TrEMBL record:
The keyword Hydrolase applies. PANTHER family: ALPHA-GALACTOSIDASE C-RELATED (PTHR43053:SF3), GLYCOSIDASE FAMILY 31 (PTHR43053). InterPro entries: Aldolase_TIM, Alpha-glycosidase_related, GH. This is Alpha-galactosidase.
């Protein structure tokens, strides 16, 4: 597959130039030389472009335009960051920008709405970092191989059979040379993904499935020491085999003042971490190092640490009423602030925390800075977190995902689950970072290939309780089952003391945790069919994400957990938001059913 057109836009001195790839001789007169290389690989190509200059220049973007022949009917959109909705869009669908109220409230800071072009035409879909297009006969896979040099966006126009690759280089200063673009494009998404995973550089991903209790789902950012201890006692008394107990927001005096304890933690963090260890669990803690509130000591005493735009105005990174309202971004490129961050992480480690959940990573790269584009700034932030967190395990949240590939142990792949199936108001206003069960599950499912290849994937928090929840039994089971199957971190936030016997039995049925291999997924009419293996046994899972009953056709050799045979192809009903699974093979050979999750 060859690109048809290409441009790079840059500035030299006071002049802005748009260089076309079919007219590079003019660029050489200005001291600009582009090396464009194509490497043939199995079923496709790798394209790389290196810019060399004899003069200091500032880059804006690079574009490549491709035409394809196949009649694709859908395109996968990887959302901008962990929380952003990620799914396949049909060519009859439109992508819409977050509505006016989201912009007024500042919610648009969480996504790509301010810097990505929403075409708003049917079949015009964009994706961050990687994508694939599907037809009935083939798939086309495309992915960035140098996201540390800038964010890569894939714009598909399915109806016109075109795809544009755009590298956001705004703010990039170059004085000699730089690899401005490196992408892979090939056919057959499953085969391509395996090859792509090998090309991505970084540390080997340790396949390590864990479970944790964390305070956020039930207590938000308002937990106190008493609630942590009460939950810890209930967990231990009921012998729940969590690996980690994580304290979320509420321990800090104000957002950003991580070493100052709130009134709810009068004895400090070390006291709580020690209690967690005494019960046999690993202490974990949440932190959002690149944001603060205007009530914090940082804001009052270190305004020079705040991220400022070209008009010297403070940069907002979102809004969250549970965190004090408006959230302000901090400057990762400020050396004094970096010293403070190291002190914070040393403090948390000295308190005994061995697992650190680093959230709001998108806040580190709200704008370009000091000759670096937004993707390069994020890469700097992730690298610094790696450096100052040595000796702990790290989980990133709220981050553009491709930049985190093979850099951290764990990474969120969805928003946190809410207590209702869908947040209708925010869905209707096109907010892709809304907190809902539907958004969480669909993003987790569509990003399943990341798990164990790029990091250990972290789905949303599940709940089994009815209190404070509008979820029915099918929805709660789908949360539990799909989080278990599609991720490597299982998170709960319920107070076990309030569980009845069935709920306790359901929770305990997760243990011991087992390694499941998901090897294929397909989507027909928003019903997800998942194929997975556990040891020698194969399973088929059906999840209906629709609000209406749907049907599925079972194989002739399926049987369910009640050992009911389906001797021939059978049509089954799947209720709205329901998940069903079936075993494939000879049921007489299966003697141990203890690994299956209780329904």
């Amino acid at each position: 597959m060859k690109f048809d057109e290409g441009i790079i836009k840059l500035s030299i001195g006071n002049k802005t130039k748009t260089i076309k790839f079919n007219d590079l001789d003019k660029a050489r007169k200005d001291g600009i030389h582009l090396e464009i290389k194509t490497e043939n690989i199995r079923n496709g190509e790798i394209y790389s472009i290196v810019l060399k200059t004899t003069k200091k220049c500032y880059l804006e973007r690079i574009e490549l335009d491709f035409n394809f022949r196949a009649s694709y009917f859908s395109m996968f959109s990887n959302g901008y960051q962990s929380m952003s909705e990620s799914r396949e869009y049909l060519k009859t669908e439109r992508m819409k920008k977050a509505g006016l109220m989201n912009r007024i409230r500042g919610y648009d800071s969480y996504g790509d709405y301010r810097f990505v072009d929403y075409v708003r035409k049917k079949g015009c879909i964009h994706s961050t970092g990687y994508t694939y297009l599907k037809s009935f006969k083939s798939t086309l896979f495309a992915a960035s191989l140098n996201e540390d040099k800038g964010f890569t966006f894939f714009y598909g126009n399915i109806s016109d059979k075109k795809i544009k690759v755009l590298k956001d280089l705004s703010g990039t200063e170059v004085e000699d040379s730089m690899e401005v673009l490196k992408i892979m494009m090939s056919y057959d998404v499953d085969d391509s993904w395996k090859y792509y995973s090998k090309l991505v550089k970084g540390k080997n991903v340790e396949n390590r499935k864990i479970s944790m209790w964390r305070s956020f789902g039930r207590y938000g950012h308002g937990v106190d020491c008493k609630e942590i201890i009460n939950n810890l006692d209930s967990i231990r008394e009921n012998n729940i085999a969590y690996d980690i107990i994580q304290i979320d927001g509420g321990y800090e005096a104000n957002l950003g003042d991580w070493m100052e304890s709130s009134k709810g933690f009068p004895q400090g963090l070390k006291f709580v971490a020690d209690k967690i260890k005494e019960k046999g669990y690993v202490p974990g803690i949440w932190i959002a190092p690149f944001i603060c509130s205007n009530k914090s000591s940082i804001y009052k005493n270190h305004k020079e640490w705040l991220l400022k735009n070209s008009q010297n105005a403070e940069v907002a990174a979102g809004r969250d009423s549970s965190l004090g309202g408006k959230i302000l971004a901090l400057d990762i490129q400020n050396e004094e602030f970096k010293v403070y961050l190291k002190e914070v992480f040393d403090y948390l480690k000295n308190c005994g925390f061995e697992f650190i959940n680093v959230d709001y990573m998108h806040a580190s790269c709200m704008i370009p800075g000091k000759g670096k584009n937004r993707g390069m700034v994020l890469n700097e932030a992730i690298s610094y977190i790696e450096e100052i967190s040595k000796g702990t395990r790290i989980m990133l949240s709220g981050t553009p995902l491709v930049n985190a590939f093979k850099k951290v142990d764990y990474c969120s792949v969805s928003c946190l689950n809410g207590y209702s199936w869908e947040n209708t108001a925010e869905k209707n206003s096109n907010l892709k970072e809304r907190r809902s069960v539907y958004n969480s599950l669909v993003s987790t499912l569509n990003r399943y290939r990341l798990n164990k290849n790029m990091f250990n994937s972290v789905p949303g928090i599940f709940t089994l309780k009815n209190k404070g929840s509008n979820l029915n039994k099918h929805e709660k089971y789908s949360m539990l089952f799909l989080s278990y199957v599609m991720g490597n971190v299982i998170m709960n936030s319920d107070n076990i003391a309030n569980y009845n016997d069935l709920e306790k039995h359901t929770l305990k049925s997760l243990y011991p945790l087992i390694d499941l291999n998901v090897y294929h997924m397909e989507i027909i009419d928003n019903v997800y069919k998942i194929k997975l293996m556990y040891g020698e046994f194969r399973y088929e899972v059906y999840f209906n994400s629709n609000d209406a009953v749907k049907t599925a056709i079972l194989r002739y050799d399926c049987f369910n957990r009640h050992r009911e045979d389906f001797k021939k192809a059978t049509i089954i009903d799947i209720k709205p938001h329901e998940t069903k699974y079936f075993i494939i093979g000879d049921k007489e050979k299966i003697t141990n059913w203890s690994h299956l999750i209780v329904n």
